[in-house]
Design brief:
The protein is α/β, with parallel strands linked by helices. The chain has helices spanning 16-31, 46-57, 63-87, 119-126, 153-165, 198-206, 214-223, 245-252, 282-292, 323-332, 334-337, 364-374, 398-408; strands at residues 3-8, 35-40, 92-95, 102-104, 113-116, 130-134, 137-140, 146-148, 169-174, 195-196, 227-231, 239-241, 261-265, 268-277, 300-302, 311-319, 341-345, 348-354, 381-385, 388-394. Strands 3-6-2-1-9-11-12-10 form an eight-stranded mixed β-sheet, sandwiched between helices. A four-stranded mixed β-sheet has the order 5-4-7-8.
Length: 426
Amino acid sequence: MALVVQKYGGSSVADAEGIKRVARRIVATRKVGDQVVVAVSAMGDSTDELIDLANEVSPAPPLRELDMLLTAGERISMALLAMAIASLGMEARSFTGSQAGVITDAVHGRARIIDVTPGRISSALAEGAIPIVAGFQGVSQTTKDVTTLGRGGTDTTAVALAAALRADVCEIYTDVDGVFTADPRIVRTARRLPRISYEEMLEMAACGSKVLVPRCVEYARRYGVPIHVRSSFSDKTGTWVMGHASEESEEAGMEQAIISGVAHDVSEAKITVVGVPDKVGEAARIFGIVAAAGINIDMIVQNVSAIATGRTDISFTLPDTDGQNALELLRAAQEKVGFQEVLYDDRIGKVSLIGAGMRSHPGISAKFFAALAEAGVNIQMISTSEIRISVVVSQNDVDTAVKATHKAFDLEADEVEAVVYGGTGR
């Protein structure tokens, strides 16, 4: 008998019929003899609707109260799902994040999980019940207030529960049949990956793949939780996320794929600080200003200093939601730091090529850049890791770049495999 943690996203429980379909799947898993713990998201777009409602009554909702409001969405879906399971003849018990023992820090809107103490979940399992846990939420260790985990929080909840309960697998149910070599909305012939390492999935998630969020994958890697990404709308085998890239290479031998996939992200902006004095400590001052505001930086490029002026330009990318804030902070510090001006561009996109095999295969960069050049795509910035190459291009060129790269590395399936059942890819 295995212990399985299952996560169902908003599109899977978008309406009453969806909730009943999920309930049947959970009961079927239980009937084959496995123990099941479920983490569930709010129904459909209800979280967005609650945010819109909050903004209607207040131009700046207090973050504590906003978290209290948003956690209502998961409470609704968990209770309805428990009722649906009961109607099928099995006992289910719903738990909020705090009741399930999800302990977080005190940051509202993007809290991080500190610990999971699943005593009530274990008791429910021992008594033969199916625990249904509200995802996306927890309780602060210090203030005892309700907190939310931010985007992809239910994925993170599910993996954290799986780690705490020492589950055999964490099944992430979405509205696609697994992890694909590219976004099926852009590349219709994207191929489903039967297996991908934690490292490759982490890079894919960080570079814009929306099937899993980086926090969820990082948590799974840290605690060795196998993740099975699959669709709640079909019975197809999905994608297993497990093991390390080096282990996969050893197991797969000559069949190890050089490239796992192409990811893209159009939610970033680019800031260029022009005419920075080329002397020790200037870059630290610039990025210190940004860091103090809690803004994450992605790619960074510094030009060669001009001999005549002794000045250089520094460009970096960041989430477009933080762009205006960073721009205002840097302009306020212009006189103090001594640079000439700040430029801002939110019409960019990042395209990334990911694969553990590129560690030992020369020529990947040349092939990637040649494919982009042949497609007429101009590169603005380049960043690399051991298993990733990312470029920044115009937002208008993102789809072209993804398709050209996907084709250049022979990632297409022989027939259309990808079906987006719920329309969101989550």
